[in-house]
Design a protein that fits this description.
alpha+beta; Alpha-Beta Plaits; two-stranded antiparallel sheet; 23% strand
């Protein structure tokens, strides 16, 4: 794979995306999502971590869900943050992810894509309007994605992701590919690894 981690005139921005799945064939779905990220217009996959297995975080005590398969990808892109978020939502939907108001936050899912970091940006961006995500809406497969976006029901984009430094399933694969990466206002990725050392995570063989 070409090393695109440094900015270039064509793809000047550096973004990191967390991938996860715990329904269907999670490992295959994460691999397929990595390939799809490399095919997004205005994006190229610069690096990808190994796959990791972690227990699902659930909304209710005693709730049992299948384990998650997780990874982190680095993208070189010319898309602005909101357009990249819209593209990730479209990939989720194409992968069978449904978003309904009735779904709990920690519901199991076929594919989850979170924009973790984008260059060194920090702050809030308004929810992506449905008019800017025609492709996502057309691939919606009957979910409430377009309506959620239009109503602003989905969270605004917050960069960096507010919990990335607290979750081993994000921090560990991120540290594999970018240990010296600076988290805006928080130091390096590697510096936060001790904070998640008690969280169980298993690196899967290649």
């Amino acid at each position: 794979m070409a090393d695109l981690s440094l900015s270039s005139p064509l793809l000047p921005h550096r973004a990191f995306v967390a991938l996860g799945a715990n329904l269907g064939e999670p490992a295959a779905q994460v691999h397929a999502a990595l390939a799809a990220l490399d095919q997004l217009p205005g994006c190229r996959l610069a690096a990808a971590s190994s796959l990791y297995r972690t227990a699902a975080i659930t909304a209710n005590p005693g709730e049992v869900q299948p384990d998650y398969i997780n990874a982190v990808a680095e993208l070189a892109t010319d898309l602005p943050p909101q357009a990249l978020l819209a593209a990730l939502l479209a990939l989720e939907s194409a992968g069978g992810r449904t978003r309904h108001h009735s779904h709990p936050r920690w519901a199991p899912r076929t594919l989850d894509l979170d924009l973790l970091l984008y260059d060194g940006l920090a702050g809030l961006w308004p929810a992506v309007p449905a008019s800017a995500t025609a492709e996502a809406a057309s691939a919606d497969n009957g979910t409430d994605l377009a309506a959620d976006l239009a109503a602003g029901a989905l969270p605004t984009l917050l960069l960096p992701h507010p919990r990335l430094h607290l979750r081993a399933f994000v921090l560990t694969p991120l540290a594999e590919i970018a240990p010296d990466l600076a988290l805006p206002g928080r130091g390096t990725v590697a510096a936060w690894l001790p904070a998640v050392r008690l969280q169980q995570i298993e690196r899967l063989p290649a």
